[in-house]
Amino acid sequence: MRLQFVHDHHHGQAEWAKRDLYEWITDVFEAPSIKIQAGCTNAIRTHISNEFTSEGWALNVKIDQELRNTVTALKDDLAFQVQTGNMSRAPYDLLKLEYLYQSQKISAAAFALPTKFAASKIGSNIAYFERVCNELTVFDRVIHVPILLIAFE
What we know:
The protein has six helices and six strands; from the N terminus they run E-H-H-H-E-E-E-H-E-H-H-E. The chain is of the alpha/beta class.
């Protein structure tokens, strides 16, 4: 697995850089031992969990005590979400991040997805960076949270 692209939505990249976390978050996706192929999602998620845990992030955090919905990781005023599953989950992930932002629980987020090419290797109808990037561009007046969108392959 390696970092391919980033997309800056509402200055999300600057928010991560301001906290000296931009290089760290992008380096998480430099994991050459993880091969992008069918069945690799557990390895990706385990790697991400290990990286975030070692830096003191809380994992699988509920966005609200009344709901079972979670984000991948949360620390201070930042949230992180990874999506390696069905495309229908990606807009929902954006909605969760926007909810945390509008509730003033976070100031910015990062959202990681495979590229279209990598998603095709993982399975069918897998969420991918290029589509989410296009949707964020279209819905920039709806999704206000500063997001650093990360593409890996």
